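Hi support team,

I'm filing this because I wasn't sure whether my run with iron/sulfur cluster finished correctly. The job status page said complete, but I'd like someone to confirm that the output block is well-formed before I use it downstream. Pasting the exact inputs I used:
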Amino acid sequence: MRVKLKSGRDQRKFIARIEELSGENVFACYQCGRCSAGCPMASEMDLLPNQIIRLVQMGLDEDVLRSKTLFLCASCFTCESRCPKGIDMARVMEAVRHILDPKGKDAFGPGEISPELAQELPQQVLVSIFRKFSK
Amino acid sequence: MRVHYYPGCTLKQKTTALDISTREAMKRLDIELVEPEGWSCCGAEYPLTEEKIVGLAAPIRVLRQVREEGGDVLVTTCSFCFAVLKRADKAVKDDPLKRKRVNAYLRDDIQIDPLTKERTTGFEDYNGEVKVLHLLEYLRDRVGYPKIRERLKRNLKGLAIAPYYGCRVLRPQKEMAVDEPDSPRLFEEFLEAVGCAAVDYPFKQECCGSYISVSLPAAATEASYRILRSARMNGAKAVAVTCPLCFYNMDHRQEAIKETFLDFPGLPVVFFTQLLAWALGVDKSVLGLGEHRVPADDLFSETPATEVRT
Ligand code: SF4
Ligand code: SF4
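And here is everything the job wrote out:
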């Protein structure tokens, strides 16, 4: 993957904000890749979990904020249980979703569920997906 | 024995099989289940950022109510409820700032007595007085497998069942810690206690696709297929689950799984409480088997209650 490096106040602010929101030390990551190896959604992702955290370390907010990966993470915490540094990637993903433009479009909104489907889905999944993917 | 029980919203509305089989089984064990007065949805997702304190309010309100009613244990079966309640309780115990903020938010909460219509407000802070236990833990630690074995009325003759933990019961390991995240025994021991044989297979703690089954069904279809196929290949006659969403993804969506993966012939999915209730002698008609899309009736076929294997 090719990235253009930047360094400045915005980058430092982005990193600090992710760390503050997630409570995780993103610089503890040494890119072993175990998080991505065990991730059940990896095959659908444009950026793998370890790539997300690497881009966060470099403060490349734009690349992270436009990644589809943010809306593919199932918060299954497999990465957390495998990470040798104890990093909880699901928290990093949630922190990034938190700072997305609050006026932006919902990544997944109620309009995308048909009334028939809504009838058969367990309540918990409706509460869950809107908490994760809509504003 | 009497214990507080939190069914959660899904068990009340859709996945009643999990609720009714739990109630039937507990009756057979002489355990009275008490629902905390005025409970609400727990929120399904534990807030994963440091700033979403409001997500702690619903679960803490439920736990505080259990304490107000004199309870010190809250039992739940749904993995999502379990994770939210347990993690919220831990956050309040471990983090003084979160404790202060969530209690400040909930202090002026108003509770209305359903009989007298009396209003109560100005609650004492909740400081983590209630222990949240998954029913599997409660059965192991508080009821005990010997008592379950004593009460068995049916011999399940070592029926091969694949225990499926899913994501929320074991992880994040820092907070959930009900068992080893990579080699758990909790579910296996339970299955053995009720007379089943626990099938060992590598996908027992993999993710079924969770809520992604709504936004990207194909991804959940594949994730659930991997679990079901592995269970079947290892000789399981069914997969046992604790979570309504795992059940939905693997049972209700199994038709889609079979259409996508033609090598997969199908496998029933059951709730652990259905196996427990059945082994304890509960009638088949009250196990909620009508809710299954993949027929599970054959697993619950009458066998003479002779010698029970221990
Ligand atoms: S497992 Fe942990 S240390 Fe390894 S790449 Fe992923 S986040 Fe970094
Ligand atoms: S929590 Fe998200 S990133 Fe981590 S393994 Fe699960 S789906 Fe992948």
